[in-house]
Design goal:
This protein is an alpha+beta fold and about 120 residues long. The protein is about 25% helix and about 10% strand.
């Protein structure tokens, strides 16, 4: 992709999907990147199962005050004070009052916002 990452779905010989297992055990969160969205519904379901089961950091969740402004196209969310929010076309903006809701909807933290407060971790 644009950041030099290799994006792939990884299946084991038994047919199980590594990406899905990582989400189910809270070792990752959904990060959609076109054109790799073939398994989008399956992966979001796995993330939601981990969230509902309060596995990993989902069980230690501490909500940060919102709102969070999201881009419908990129599926990334920003803190409302992130300068990048101004660049989101108004019709593509979705506002979530909580980070939990953004993750539940399949959105991921924006890379740019991680630079705003380097001492905070944007993983759930």
């Amino acid at each position: 992709d644009d950041y030099g990452r290799t994006l792939a779905y990884l299946f084991l010989p038994d047919g199980s999907m590594v990406n899905e297992k990582l989400l189910q055990t809270d070792m990752a969160h959904c990060l959609y990147k076109m054109p790799n969205i073939k398994c989008e519904a399956r992966l979001l379901k796995a993330q939601r199962e981990a969230m509902q089961g309060r596995r990993g950091v989902w069980g230690e969740w501490h909500e940060e005050e919102g709102p969070y402004v999201s881009n419908r196209n990129s599926r990334r969310f920003h803190r409302s004070n992130c300068p990048e929010v101004k660049r989101i076309y108004p019709k593509n903006r979705i506002v979530f009052s909580k980070r939990w809701d953004a993750f539940w909807a399949g959105y991921a933290p924006a890379r740019e916002c991680q630079k705003i407060t380097a001492d905070q971790n944007d993983r759930p």
